[in-house]
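Design request, tokens follow.
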């Protein structure tokens, strides 16, 4: 039997999910690849993986997709690790540098600037060392572990999940487990159980992580919301609708 090819984001926010997957029997039936979000999204589009924990912005680019899990990377309020950072207030920002590792967060920034902040700016696809270029009226989208590391280095920190909540009254979904083909129901059941195993052992996950920049237990229990519930599904559909307009 061919192994199912699974791609997952290699950020701290996926550690609880991957903890369970790597410690369940399902690991023997999969090939697991870890990369940054936009790379995983492209692999799903290219069909070099079968399932990916992908930025939800990619969904509009897939001809057929299947949301296969009860779990996601979401946030009800502050997500902490996805922000628009600047040294100037939002109404004075002229340029926004876009994190090359992101699709959904970049798209969310554009949606919020257009519909919530109602601000026109120049967008620039950022290079690898772009964080040093955030200055004056130039802001930058930073995501993942780097956002946690640099969150206190800027005067203004616009948490994108919080601002989406302020705009819509809904939580936000950054990434979901998506298949580009039908997946056997028995596998999906086992896959969900593997995800849950990690979430049921958060203290064990935290003990394995050395990250001095932010409280990891707080991040997993107060910032990231992993259950892909009806409110998050509603939010996802609304975001995909807005996404067609940017």
């Amino acid at each position: 039997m061919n192994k199912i090819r699974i791609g997952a984001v290699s950020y701290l926010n996926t550690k609880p999910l991957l903890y369970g997957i790597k410690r369940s029997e399902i690991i023997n039936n999969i090939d697991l690849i870890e990369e940054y979000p936009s790379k995983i999204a492209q692999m799903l589009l290219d069909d070099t993986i079968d399932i990916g924990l992908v930025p939800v912005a990619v969904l509009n680019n897939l001809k057929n997709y299947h949301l296969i899990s009860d779990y996601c990377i979401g946030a009800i309020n502050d997500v902490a690790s996805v922000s628009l950072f600047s040294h100037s207030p939002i109404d004075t920002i002229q340029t926004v540098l876009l994190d090359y590792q992101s699709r959904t967060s970049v798209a969310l920034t554009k949606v919020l600037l257009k519909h919530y902040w109602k601000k026109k700016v120049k967008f620039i696809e950022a290079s690898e060392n772009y964080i040093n270029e955030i200055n004056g009226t130039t802001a930058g989208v930073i995501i993942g572990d780097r956002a946690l590391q640099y969150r206190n280095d800027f005067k203004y920190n616009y948490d994108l999940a919080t601002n989406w909540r302020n705009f819509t009254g809904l939580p936000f979904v950054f990434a979901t487990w998506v298949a580009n083909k039908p997946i056997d129901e028995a596998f999906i059941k086992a896959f969900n159980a593997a995800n849950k195993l990690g979430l049921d052992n958060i203290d064990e996950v935290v003990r394995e992580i050395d990250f001095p920049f932010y409280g990891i237990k707080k991040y997993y229990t107060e910032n990231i919301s992993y259950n892909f519930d009806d409110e998050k599904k509603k939010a996802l559909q609304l975001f995909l609708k807005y996404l067609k307009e940017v």
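Comment from the thread starter after seeing the answer: thanks! The domain at 4-74+172-243 is CATH 3.40.190.10 (D-Maltodextrin-Binding Protein; domain 2).
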